[in-house]
Structures are given as structure tokens and as C-alpha cells.
Amino acid sequence: MSAPIPSAVGLVPPAVPRLVRTTCPYCAVQCNFDLHIENNLPVKITPTRECPVAHGTVCKKGLAALSDLRHPERLTTPLLRKNGQLVPVSWAEALAYVRQALTPLLRTNPDAVGVYGSGSLTNEKTYLLGKFARLALKTANIDYNGRYCMASASTALNRTVGYDRGLGFPLSDLGTSDLILLVGANIAETLPPIMQYLKAAKDRGALVYAIDPRATTTAKVAGKHLGIRPGSDGVLALGLLNLMKQWGRIRPTATAHGLTGVLWQADDYPPARVAHECGIPESEFMALAHAYAQATKPLILTGRGAEQHAHGTDTVHALLNLAFLTGHFGKPGGGYGTLTGQGNGQGGREHGQKTDQLPGARSLRDPRHRAEIAALWGCTAADLPQPGKSAQELLNACGTEIEALIVLGSNPVVSAAGAGFVAERLRALKHLIVIDFLPSETAQLATLVLPGSMWCEEEGTTTNLEGRVQRRRKAITAPGAAREDWRILCDLAHAVGRPRGFEYTDFRELQDEFFRATRGGKADYSGLSAERLDRASAQWPVPHAAGPDTPYAYAPTYPTADGLATLQVPALPAFVAVPHTPHLALTLTTGRLSNQYQSGTQTRRNAGLRAENTAQMHPDTAREYGLKAGDPVTLKTAHGSTTLPVSITPGIRPDTVFLPFHWPETANLLTDPHTLDPHSGMPAFKATSVTLHPAFAVASSTVRGVGQPVMR
User: Fold this and answer.
1) Which end of the chain is more exposed for a tag (fewer CB within 10 A), N or C?
2) Residue 626 in 3-state DSSP?
3) Is the dihedral of CA 437, 438, 439, 441 positive or negative?
4) 520 and 375 in contact (C-beta within 8 Å)?
């Protein structure tokens, strides 16, 4: 029997030290640790071996998280823009501004008000944000930054099997696989605790391939690296399917629609074509194909490197088809999964902040689903708006169709594609209301900033990358006049004169409503409660309080109209090799660094998480341009330019340049805000044509370290 879980229930005298178990604020592994509280402040983090995922490990970012809680720049009072400056005001004045700014728009054109959420929000806040947008604001235009994460994989899974749980199996299954393909997934730096499962697989004799334009830290640990051209992952999958068909390895997981068309398409991708388009030796491709054909439990795991393209959904379809047609999809230790990135990226895409979604992963387009949620919310199905703009479309429309935007827990000025263009659009808004706990670059453009809560200042649940729901427990109170985010959303509903449905007496009332709202949905959490989660975490769906959870989510039959999967024929671009010459045929790709997280609002301020913002390139590329390590270089695309010091990286492809996206005025100044995946709305972050121009000096505004400007 496990020890009781430390909790913060009840009033505890400040002088009494205590422990509170909660979840890490960073990645989607969602490690558990104990916070040591003294005088109402956390003083230490202790990893717990009872954590069902990390088993006593916590990465450097998690261990450094205490430094963020009382940062000198922590927002503790509302800030209202007056005479061009953000100045402290009372909550009464802040909410009066909300009433005066939004009420006229809501009366005449509610869709002119947009809402932009985050994959870092708890499930309860995700649910409440969607309810707030549709019931209080009555706007169609709500979406969130998770659109930039696993939206392509999510869309492909839903189109194929009607269901989206990133990993349909427990992480522990990785240790039983005999071949693991990490496709555009640098987990050693982005999801470090998962490396223990890769080690377990390797210790059993598994082959682990890192398929990535760079020889990342993960590639070095994996032992096998296939350095394909950015965006050619789908071509690789079609080539593998071609050979599996030739070698008699086609044995579909289940009866499905679309099998014939998918197999016919694969005939067009023989090894020579695949090697040419992927930019790899044919011998390396054949070695991978033989390994896949011989494996009994091959597992394909995608990260953002494969998904963040204008053809990202089709890329995932190609990989998913391969796993399904060779009989491995849904098999313990094999098949396909997507590695969710943000802390609550999985739960954040299930409960209503997506523009086409209602709680429980219901569809806003489905009349039955609309009726179910309308009944819970006390409105009619006709009162609920239809789907609106996806994330990038929403940001691009600011200042024109969108006159006011509410942003909760996100920093699109750094994280969105075409960040310079997005910043211009946000400046063109009449009203930009930002709810956050630190002054992000987006908050610095706001007309109103509302101080919200941090991870250990609120209750809630999060859902990790394997669909595991866990409790996040409140350990301390927010400082100054800062308020818990869920209370702020209720305050805003009252401010615009629509309090009905936002009059919760306490958080538990909201949480219980959230669990009920998922009943009958694909992402059914209705069997959960705080008490049940105190006993143990659970993998959804969990439809009954006394029943089991669902560690394995992808066994037939599927939640589709006829219970069958529908395989999609992927539409992929042709990759034509172009001779590499100066100012021609270089591709920019973007990604993460181990010491940084997302848009860097927290980690860039953390002295324990220093990192270098550089342009990584191959030694041959640097030599061709007359560059050496540390030299400034200006990178230009059709969308913007930036200047950074050079970092010489032998493991990267000579035709590829890599930039981290955690800093403002760097990577996403260069990405395309207009070309989107037609299925998922994903921008093409991972492959942008770029030219290099040696520079004499690096502009100080383009190289940011740990700190950033204070709120102006």
C-alpha cells in the first residue's frame, strides 16, 4: 500500500512546514514531485518515486521551477494602458475597462471578439475558457497555441480512427518495443524523463532510430541516425510501405476503408526515389526498411519535426498507414503515437478551447454533441456558435475582423508563425487583454494585463502524453492582487453582464461540472473525481466511478460511424534536390533547446536555465559563407530577417540551418504566417527557404539571454 499523498487541504499555520504533491509546470510527461512549504513559500522540490510516469526523476527545468514563483517581474496587480504606458490599477477599474471595451462589440458583433488559450492550462481552465467564449461572449473565434503543437497528428488520428489520445498505450510499453523510430522527436532535450524507457528498450536489444535533419542529443543516445531532408518524413513512410508490400509484410490491424488506394500510392515510391527525395543514401534507407520488416513490435513516435509542416497531417497519415497496414497499430509496444509537447497539451486539446470542439472531445459541428452541452449549460443548441478561425487565422485577422482579443497563458508574439506580422496585427487591435503571471512580449503590447496564477497556486487536473489524468494541487496563494485564472474568467463574464453559468461557489463546483461535461464524449473523464485521483492517476476514457481506466485506447472497434478505420491517401509535395550554392537551397528549421521551454516567458528569466540563441549550421556551410563560430550572420526569408551568432554543428545537414524558437525577434520572424496545413491549420514552421548574409555586428535586440525587458 502506498503512502498517503501529501496535500494542502485545510488551513495550516504559516510556521508549520508541510509537503504538497503536485505536477511539474513544464512538459507533457507531467512528473510528480513534492513541494516543501515553509512560511507559505516553497523552498525545495523533491522528486517522488511514486510518480507513475517518471519514477523519481525530474529534469533540470522542473527542478528550477521554484525560481519562477517569486520572480521580481511577477505580475501582482492589474495594469491598464494610459497615455501609452501600462500602469497599475485596481481590479474594479480593470473590470470597468472590460465592460466598456467589450459590451458594445458583444451587442453588435460578438465574433469581433477573439479568445486565445494555451496547452499549459489545466483541464478545468480549458473547459471554462471554451464555455466562457461560447456562453458569455457568444463568439465563434476561440483557439489556442496547441494548434502549433500536435494539431497535425491529432487531425490525422481523428480522421483515421475517430480518436485522438497521443499515446494510446502506457509509456512503459516503450521498453518492450524492438524497434523505435523517433521521427522529428528530440526527446532527450524536450521530454527528458522518457529517456529511461528508451534505455530499457535498448537494454533489451531494441534498435532506436532518430530520424531528424540534425544529429540531436537524442540521436546520439539512440545510436542510429537518419538525417533526412526537412519535411520528407512522409516520403520515407511511403517508401517503407512500398517495400513492406513487396516483401509480403502487409497484414492490416483491422478491416478498414481506403486500403486499396493507400497501397496503390506506395507503388510510386521505390527506394531510389525515396533516397533522392529524402536526401539520404539508398543503403541507409534499405537498412531501415529491413529493420522494420524484421521487427515484431516496431513503434513510430512523431514529434513536431514531422508534424509542423503545411503537409503535416498528410505526413502523419503516411506514418499511421504504415503502422496500420503492417499490423502494429494498437499493439502493446508497437504501432504509432505522437509525443505531446506542452504540459497539458493532451487535455488542452480535448475540452473545448479548440475552435471546432466541445468538452469531452465532442465536435461543435455535431448536432447531438451541441445538444448535450447546451443542456448542461442551460442554453439551446442554436445559441452555441459554429466553429470559427483556427489559431493562426485568428491572429492574422486581428485589427481587421477581430477588434478585441483575450489571451490566457500564451505568448503568440514569440510562438506564432510570422511573429513580426502577428505583433503588427496585435498592435492594430482596439483591445488586447492578456491574463498571465509574467510580462511576456504579448503582455507588453496589451491594453489591459490581468495578473493570474502559477502552477502551484491553483487546483486542477492535467493530462499527460499517455492520456494519464493527475491532480495538480494548490500549495500557496498567488501574491498581491493576483487571482486564480478560473476566477478571472468568471470575473470577466460578470463584467460583460453575462454571469449565468459563471457563479461557482468554489473550485470544486467547477471541477465537478467539468467531469460531468465529458460524460459520453470520446475523452470521457466522468468517472473521475479529486478523491479518485488522490488514490491513483487514470488514463482516459474513465466513464464509471467504480470502473477501470483505459491504458490501451486504440483497439478495434473505433469510435467512428461504422466502427472501422478510414485510411487516407496522403498528398505530399515532391522534393527535388537542388545543387547547394551560396544564397540558394538552404532550408531553415526550428526547434527547442533542453534548458528552454516554449516561448521562454519563464525559462529565459531563470538564471539556472541559461542557453545560447545561435544559428546552427554545418561546418561546410559555414566555410562556404566564410563564417566561423561566433560570427554574426543575418538570415533572411520572404517573411523577415534576423541576425545571430553562428554555432558550428557537425551533425546537421549542410543544406539546413536550425534556429531555436524560445526568443523573440529570432526564429519565428522568419516563418510563414499564411501557408497553413489544409486539414489542421498548422503553419510550416519546420521548412522555410532561407538565405545567409555575413554581418559585421549583431544587433543587441536580436540576441536575448536569460532576462528580457521589464513591463513598460
Assistant:
1) N
2) coil
3) negative
4) no
Q: How far apart are CA 315 and CA 262, in angstroms?
A: 13
Terminal Cα distance for the chain, rounded:
54
Evaluate whether 662 touches 597 at the Cβ level (below 8 Å): yes
Helix/strand/coil percent split, the chain, to 5: 35, 20, 45
Residue 669 main-chain phi, psi, to 5 deg: -65, -20
Q: What is the mean pLDDT of residues 53-80?
A: 90
Cell readout for 59 is 529534469
179, 152 in Cβ contact below 8 A? Answer: no
What interhelical angle do 507-517 and 367-377 show, nearest 10?
160
Label the pairing between strands 335-338 and 298-302.
parallel
Q: HSE on the CB side for 700, CA within 13 Å?
A: 3
What are the phi and psi torsion angles at 682 (to 5°)? Answer: -75, 130
Nearest one of 1, 144, 2, 8 to 459, comparing CA atoms: 8
| Polymer length in residues for the chain | 712
Contact between 234 and 570 (Cβ < 8 Å): yes
Contact between residue 695 and residue 643 where contact means Cβ atoms under 8 Å apart: yes
The pLDDT tens digits for 401-415 are: 999 999 999 999 999
With cell 551560396, the residue in question is 582
Rounded to whole angstroms, the Cα distance separating 98 from 103 reads: 8
Q: Which residues contact 509 (CB under 8 A, 6 or more apart)?
A: none
Strand, coil or helix: what is 6? coil
Separation CA 550–CA 374 (nearest Å): 28
Residue 310, amino acid? A
Give the pLDDT score at 39: 86
Does residue 552 carry a pLDDT above 70? yes
**In the structure grid, which three cell numbers stand for residue 33, read together?**
514531485
Q: Does residue 581 carry a pLDDT above 70?
A: no
pTM, to two decimals: 0.94
Please give the full DSSP string across 334-390, using - where no structure is assigned: -EEEE---STTHHHHTTSS-STTEETTTEETT-HHHHHHHHHHHTS-GGGSPPP---
Answer for the pair 301, 252: CB distance below 8 angstroms, yes or no. Answer: no
Mean pLDDT of 376-392: 97
HEC per residue, 80-144 = EEECCEEEECCHHHHHHHHHHHHHHHHHHCHHHEEEEECCCCCHHHHHHHHHHHHHHHCCCCEEE
710 pLDDT band, cuts 50/70/90, is: very low
Three-state SS sequence of 204-260: CCCEEEEECCECCHHHHHHEEEECCCCCCHHHHHHHHHHHHHHCCCCCCCCCEECHH
Task: Say if residue 4's pLDDT is above 80.
Answer: no
* pLDDT tens digits along 30-57: 999 999 999 888 999 999 999 999 999 8
